[in-house]
């Protein structure tokens, strides 16, 4: 009887040791895969940055020379030729904006390891100063419904996050009586924020799509933009251990929600 129990215990112990070895091997494989994934992501971000940066100068030259062509020889060209030049200049400017946004996307999170305690009320004041002209021209009314917390974040990234969301809330608001509300709510391990507007709203089928890069729901003639801003916002929020989503009703406005972890988060 005793021998049988000992044999059973030996068998169980061997199975436990084998299981631990398998788990250790799987853990090592996961660590290696994560390392390779991080390396690929870093290389991809560096590639995007280099390509975008190198494209800016020749594109600037093309746009500049097209402008010179129009200003110096415009009187000798017919209306059709002038319209072609205008199309080329307009396309070049839009491409420059797209490249600038790509550079911003590639830079987002690159200094993610550098976190500092920041009063988000101060961030919001800076953002409102940055977009003062937009606020003034559109007569938008921005209300802060609750004081914002002090968190360990990347100052530059969080500044871009609020600026992108506030600018969008104003841009897609009604022509008159634009209102934007900013809210903050403390949770167990994070802070949840909301930026609410009274604009055109978003169809439910597009709630996730709008956070994908180059996604535009409207023509460039209706609303300016490259479709990169919300992708930048998503990357910033996720690099701070949070998530971002939208709730909206067509014709009645949208609310962009996002969370930021209370603890500093380092992600590649």
From TrEMBL:
<dbReference type="InterPro" id="IPR005467">
    <property type="entry name" value="His_kinase_dom"/>
</dbReference>
<dbReference type="InterPro" id="IPR036890">
    <property type="entry name" value="HATPase_C_sf"/>
</dbReference>
<keyword id="KW-0175">Coiled coil</keyword>
<dbReference type="InterPro" id="IPR003594">
    <property type="entry name" value="HATPase_dom"/>
</dbReference>
<dbReference type="GO" id="GO:0000155">
    <property type="term" value="F:phosphorelay sensor kinase activity"/>
</dbReference>
<dbReference type="InterPro" id="IPR003661">
    <property type="entry name" value="HisK_dim/P_dom"/>
</dbReference>
<dbReference type="InterPro" id="IPR052162">
    <property type="entry name" value="Sensor_kinase/Photoreceptor"/>
</dbReference>
<feature type="coiled-coil region">
    <location>
        <begin position="9"/>
        <end position="43"/>
    </location>
</feature>
<dbReference type="Pfam" id="PF00512">
    <property type="entry name" value="HisKA"/>
</dbReference>
<keyword id="KW-0808">Transferase</keyword>
<dbReference type="InterPro" id="IPR036097">
    <property type="entry name" value="HisK_dim/P_sf"/>
</dbReference>
<dbReference type="Pfam" id="PF02518">
    <property type="entry name" value="HATPase_c"/>
</dbReference>
<feature type="domain" description="Histidine kinase">
    <location>
        <begin position="50"/>
        <end position="264"/>
    </location>
</feature>
<keyword id="KW-0597">Phosphoprotein</keyword>
<keyword id="KW-0418">Kinase</keyword>
<dbReference type="InterPro" id="IPR004358">
    <property type="entry name" value="Sig_transdc_His_kin-like_C"/>
</dbReference>
<protein>
    <recommendedName>
        <fullName>histidine kinase</fullName>
        <ecNumber>2.7.13.3</ecNumber>
    </recommendedName>
</protein>
